[in-house]
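Section 5: illustrative case.
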């Protein structure tokens, strides 16, 4: 009879131990699920992080003016677009509208058309009179200075030339509006 009692107690202890371990496993799975859903809910990084300062660069506009980082005006909207990017094409109407209402006018809107082919020049011409326009390859000075990781990429620099916000879609970028 004593042997049966020991066996029942041993089975009960093993059952409780199994229950505690299973509750721990369930708790860890929930933590991992929360971490994964947090990471998937964040938009992809398109350029430098907020709070970063663009790297040094020297680049020429389509009309031959040369700019460096020191010439970058405060409160500037910077857009990186590629003619071969479908999502860039979808963003154009909103970008044109936002560029027209940007305080400071064309000097405070920089559009960088990224590409090498013959389609880059006509693509860039649609922004004439609307922005300061550059055409550069993906390894050009401006994409490298801003750490561009994909297209389209939009950023807003604050009054100190620091990246204040970035977005994959221009509608998500908080922009000041001219009065």
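Designed sequence:
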């Amino acid at each position: 009879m004593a042997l049966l009692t020991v066996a029942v107690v041993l089975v009960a202890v093993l059952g409780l131990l199994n229950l505690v371990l299973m509750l721990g496993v369930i708790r860890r799975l929930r933590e991992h699920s929360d971490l994964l859903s947090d990471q998937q809910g964040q938009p992809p990084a398109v350029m430098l992080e907020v709070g970063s300062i663009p790297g040094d660069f020297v680049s020429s506009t389509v009309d031959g003016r040369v700019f460096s980082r020191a010439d970058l005006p405060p409160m500037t909207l910077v857009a990186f677009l590629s003619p071969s990017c479908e999502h860039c094409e979808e963003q154009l109407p909103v970008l044109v509208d936002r560029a027209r209402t940007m305080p400071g006018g064309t000097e405070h809107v920089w559009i960088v058309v990224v590409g090498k082919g013959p389609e880059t020049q006509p693509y860039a011409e649609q922004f004439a009179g609307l922005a300061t326009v550059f055409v550069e390859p993906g390894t050009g000075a401006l994409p490298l200075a801003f750490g561009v990781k994909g297209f389209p990429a939009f950023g807003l620099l604050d009054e100190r030339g620091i990246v204040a916000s970035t977005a994959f879609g221009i509608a998500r970028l908080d922009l000041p509006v001219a009065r």
